[in-house]
Queue: 4 jobs
Job 1
Amino acid sequence: SERKARTRKAPAYLTFDDIGGQQRAKIELKEALDFLIKHEEIRKLGIRPLKGILLEGPPGTGKTLLAKAAAHYTNSVFIAASGSEFVEMYVGVGASRVRELFKEARSRAAKENKESAIVFIDEIDVIGGKRDGGQHREYDQTLNQLLTEMDGIHTTDSPRILLMAATNRKEMLDSALLRPGRFDRHIEVDLPDKKGRLHILNIHGKNKPLSEQVNLEMIAEETFQFSGAQLESVMNEAAIYAMREESPLIEQKHLSQAVDKVMIGERTDRESTK
Ligand code: ATP
């Protein structure tokens, strides 16, 4: 395959304030990240370094956003990849991509004069799934390489490396990844509650012309079990409805239509994947 290990740069920086809801996840994450920042103290006390943070929760809840905000918070370079990018037909290719990813993190940190780098792997379950007795040899090598990279992280390293990973199926992960010294911290990133939904709607409504009559609290009420990604869709669809009606402002009815549309869209998606 010609496909190269793609590593995506974060577009602009992103802070924890740009993420709606997720109060508990943010607090837990910041606490964990302080380990990366206070590395001198950690080293002096002989505490082993924090190597991995696992973000766990349903799709579209802001795990990638949290990882990006973590990079900003710790003044680290941010390198991201998705587990599916490491799946290849040829044995060894996935493993060498893992190696490249960490190499790139180190060289980018050096180039940008940063003391630390956060490597983010979305859909970690694709490569870190339970190993079943030599069935998936290629996956095994990829996972082994990831474990090797994690084991090679030391507090005295320059730059310091932190691996963050996201999954919505933690129970699928190989126990080797969950052992002490690997992904030590698990942070749950749940669907937002009503307050969180309102926060997210406000964030995505910030740059949109909302009519004064708009009541986002009502929309937050109506969007039980919506993810952050779906709420972002609601705001976007509402703007499209406004445009169709040549309305300069987004009205409450546009938002309600958008809620229905996103809800129905989800349902048909689910039907078609059955
Ligand atoms: P997946 O597991 O599908 O990769 P994820 O949890 O990583 O999902 P993100 O990629 O972080 O989700 O979120 C997708 C988009 O949804 C974001 O770019 C953002 O527009 C919106 N979004 C999701 N959660 C939030 C949130 N908590 N606050 C604001 N926007 C959010």
Job 2
Amino acid sequence: ATPVVVAIDGPSGTGKSSTSKAVAARMGMRYLDTGAQYRAITWWMLHAGVDIDDPRAVAAAAGKPSIVSGTDPLAPSITIDGTDVAAPIRGERVTGAVSAVSAVPEVRTLITDLQRSIAAEADGGIVVEGRDIGTTVLPDADVKIFLTASPEVRAARRSAEVSGRAGAPAAGGADVAATQAALLRRDAADSGRKTSPLAKAGDATEVDTSELTLEQVIECVVTLIEERG
Ligand code: C5P
């Protein structure tokens, strides 16, 4: 059988990463976190002193670093020019800058090419999560899923994720409100950009995860993969 390609898109805080990793692990497939790639190039630009508010400067620097994504769903990894950036790309600085960098067409072209070659080499099939996988990166994916959730649920999940990290304080009400505002700003930027915005593909199945547990979302996606075609 030909390897199955699964595209999982949606805004932040919908459970894309947890769901995609678990589904890939369960089905013996590879896993690619495309958001981590945009975060890595953003980290590199900040580190290199590129003015990320200048799209021409970002475009000129885009081809310089080399990104390597490890696709084991049980131990995903990301390096840029040989530096392991798995931890720093989750920080506030990168999160606040990534939408500007990922909106630059030259950045998208380079990273899209990289994503396509990784998917083409995944013999056992692959789950690819992002914002434009079903629409642009892999329009011929065998299964396309678009995850959604209410803004309140998304903010609560993101706050729990951030405060669950080592050394982080527990999130209070004000923190959740601030997280929700930042998350909605990022989604608005990602949905409003000209090149390959966050969007549901016409042939994607939408799953509203607001009232579902992670296990229920995983079950739902596994069923959609098993029933494909
Ligand atoms: O999924 P994650 O929150 O890590 O994505 C970080 C950012 O990377 C998004 O807010 C978006 O700007 C960008 N991104 C993108 N296209 C993708 C995946 C992520 O533009 N396929």
Job 3
Amino acid sequence: MNKILVTGGLGFIGSHTVVELQTKGYEVVIIDDLSNSSIEVLDGITAITGKTPVFEKLDLKDKSGVEAFFAKHNDIKGVIHFAASKAVGESVKEPLLYYENNISTLVYILKELKKLPEASFIFSSSCTVYGQADELPITENAPVKQAESPYGNTKQIGEEIIKDTCKISPNLKAIALRYFNPIGAHDSAKIGELPIGVPQNLVPFITQTGIGIREELSVFGDDYPTSDGTCVRDYIHVVDLAKAHVVALNRLLTNKNKSNYETFNLGTGKGSTVLEVIKAFEKVSGVKLNYKIVGRRAGDIISAYADTTKANEELGWKTELSLEDAMRSAWKWEQVVRGK
Ligand code: WQD
């Protein structure tokens, strides 16, 4: 069966994707530098699938290390590239850390793929490339706007690098998957989101407040032009998102792609406000969430949710899990992680 490299495979979305790849019979090799993940995730994956992926600890900024890896694993048929720094706020404070870690590593991997007879490449991109879109829902043709952060810029630059490389490399085919807001955890509660330090994202902050690690959730503004004044996002269950990666990879491996560089928006197609997410949490957990409305967070866009037509029609993929399913799984995971 095809051997697939998953970079960042011990991370949140990476680990869920490894599970889905193994479930579909792929042989998986993981590279992770453990800077934002833990080796215990490997046990979680094994507990779910019964198979332990090959794991190599490697910092992808180590160019010779990347070269040595591909010399050893020269039978790799595809790469799903998650490994990157992804904290929006941190990227504003440390832009060079983000440009080095997110861009140079991508270049080193693409240089190795160019040497293979043929290679399929899936890139972890983000709806953040659209900024505040002029039209909703957001299609793949929406203009890519001036990034709100160096993190978002690395996703835009990454897509351009891949597009330019595919143009001159007939052996290389690539898909950029633009995620909306990934949330939730595997239903087994063996893997899930493990934010380090104070969570920047909404859902882990909600579950940590629910379980008592955080005193209270701050809701960043309720004076936006939305149904209840709080921002709207498209919250996609991480398992649905993981399955989309396997479908996209298979599209390339079976030559169903229409060009050798494609982009797909991955969302539910439905927007939810912050207060609606809180309500969903309270419903599935039975916990009354302690929160307060505070001022807006700099850089937040008002509303974003996906037009899923292209992914539905061309990938033959659509989300199957609801916001409540995602909140239920996130809560179950939080309780397991805290030994409750
Ligand atoms: C969602 C909503 C906040 C925390 C970012 C990146 C995106 C992806 C996901 C990496 C917003 C509100 C949040 C809190 C709150 N990252 N919020 N209180 O900003 O939409 O997307 O994370 O892949 O690329 O841009 O996600 O979860 O931070 O915020 O009120 O404590 O929740 O204002 O409206 P965001 P988020």
Job 4
Amino acid sequence: YNKSQFELYTLTTWLLQEQRKGKIDSELATVISSISLACKQIAAAVGRSGISSLTGVAGTGENVQGEEQKKLDVISNDIFCNCLRMSGRTGVIASEEEATPVAVEETDSGNYIVVFDPLDGSSNIDAGISVGSIFGIYEPSISVGSIFGIYEPSETCMVDGDLDQSLEACITNVCQPGKNLLVAGYCLYSSCHTMVLTIGDGVYGFTLDPYVGEFVLTHNRIQVPEVGKIYSFNEGNYAMWDEPTKKYMDSLKDPAKWGGKPYSARYIGSLVGDFHRTLLYGGIYGYPGDAKNKNGKLRLLYECAPMSFIAEQAGGMGSTGKERVLDIQPTEVHQRVPLMIGSKKEVEYYESFYKN
Ligand code: P6P
């Protein structure tokens, strides 16, 4: 028989190798493993959503973003929180689906800070279009030893008119610039389920082998092409964009500028799917600010910063159009920033429209 067919190089094997190389310690590897378990569970839930009547709205009303929570949003958030709690290495979590950061009591050590969007693009779920989870891991910026108890999102945590000191410490720990990230990754739930991960030394892709339930290394040190003739923007917002963005978009579609062959448009309305294609094929994904939302729609902490860390580790860029995303010091957990991300030359071309 073909021996190599059974020599799977799994995420677990890769994590052990990275520990041997001293790139990460066992505590951080434990957190990454717990996240991979969450992604496997979400992949199963998403794959069966139509069958187990998990599509549609949760009936829990709107989340902090004013978006109708889908059943799978709530389930995916619970899955992430449970896995991270059970890892015993997580100090604080911040999720798109939680109003405030949550201090995790069951932390034995490590005390890592984990930020995540458990199911991004979930409005696409009912149509079976790709969705994904996005995550980032930080060291605590201040001691979390003094933090205990678990905040229910509804709990005001206001003590004598001031934010409870512990919650304030949680927020301080969570609101770190992306350049502090130790780990960033996403899991794409699509025709195949692929986890893409960086621990600060290149970008690796692991595809879920449904037969053994393991993430298997399939993309070794991904490099985003330096240029790419694909743009991924919601052009429905064109009328609300500022002049530099309009001029940029007009230029991409001008055949005369590109030897007769303008750029192609690809937009599925799901950041993880659009970004994954951009990372592998090259090009640019953009969600600019507009007249209605000057900072655009995407969240800095658990969408733009982790994706920008991955892009930079793959030789690309993540920018607001005016500044490097990873340099931005968050001022609040759910703040939004404009995002231009992908091939270095393509992001620089967008930025040039603000410089001239
Ligand atoms: P629009 C999904 O809601 C999301 O956060 C991203 O996944 C996606 O890229 C973007 O918003 C789509 O937003 O305004 O184009 O529908």
